[in-house]
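Design job #97: recover the sequence.
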């Protein structure tokens, strides 16, 4: 629905039409941002895996307080990262509003991340690689604070690098404290999925290694080319005069000024 919404939003001039597609874009972006954290939270916390390496819990077991907190962390971090990207790519009022959102959501993300990492340390502070986890978590926190400081000073490039480093370091810290587990079992540690018993066959790993060796550089090349082509900032004056007007959120929700679709 999110991907389709970008295409279908401009197919009609009606305010209500665009409002519904705006909602599809919003919720289609919100849910994955939360569920990324929920998934990572359950990976770190562990789930009900039995002796046959099968999940025997329910769907609602995955929506536990720890994983939901992780979902709020990823949501706030992604909002901060996205708003920082907007400050890097836009001009005028959009840039100022995006900077304000990045700073506010960044502070919320910092508080939530400290709570999540603290909870993780209490639960798994005796893990084999807890020291590396602590070092990477501190580095992630410093990168976030550095990014917010850069955004406050109007250095959007450094701010974007800071928030990107925060996400990378946070993920690395979680996998570090997990190793050698891939997903712990809350029923019996001996039933956990590990890097050994969850690995694919040697043939599969060999094929995928060659695939990654060939296609990863190609992906990086076309992503880099895309960034280069769209490297300049854009503002309202770049929008053609015949473009359909943006929907006012308040008017759309209230149904005010709804046009007849053409």
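Job complete. Output follows.
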């Amino acid at each position: 629905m999110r991907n389709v919404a970008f295409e279908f939003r401009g197919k009609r001039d009606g305010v209500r039409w665009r409002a519904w597609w705006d909602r599809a874009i919003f919720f289609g972006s919100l849910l994955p941002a939360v569920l990324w954290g929920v998934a990572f939270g359950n990976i770190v916390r562990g789930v009900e895996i039995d002796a046959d390496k099968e999940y025997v819990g329910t769907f609602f077991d995955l929506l536990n307080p720890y994983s939901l907190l992780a979902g709020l962390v990823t949501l706030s971090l992604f909002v901060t990262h996205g708003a920082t990207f907007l400050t890097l790519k836009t001009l005028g009022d959009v840039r100022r509003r995006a900077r304000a959102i990045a700073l506010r959501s960044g502070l919320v993300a910092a508080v939530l991340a400290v709570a999540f990492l603290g909870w993780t340390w209490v639960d798994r502070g005796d893990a084999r690689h807890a020291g590396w986890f602590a070092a990477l978590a501190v580095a992630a926190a410093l990168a976030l604070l550095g990014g917010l400081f850069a955004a406050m000073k109007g250095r959007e490039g450094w701010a974007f690098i800071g928030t990107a480093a925060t996400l990378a370091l946070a993920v690395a810290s979680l996998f570090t404290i997990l190793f050698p587990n891939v997903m712990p079992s809350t029923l019996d540690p001996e039933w956990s999925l590990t890097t050994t018993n969850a690995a694919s066959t040697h043939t599969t790993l060999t094929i995928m290694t060659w695939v990654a060796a060939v296609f990863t550089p190609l992906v990086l090349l076309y992503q880099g080319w895309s960034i280069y082509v769209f490297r300049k900032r854009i503002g309202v004056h770049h929008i053609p005069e015949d473009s359909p007007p943006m929907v006012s959120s308040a008017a759309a929700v209230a149904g005010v000024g709804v046009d007849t679709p053409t």
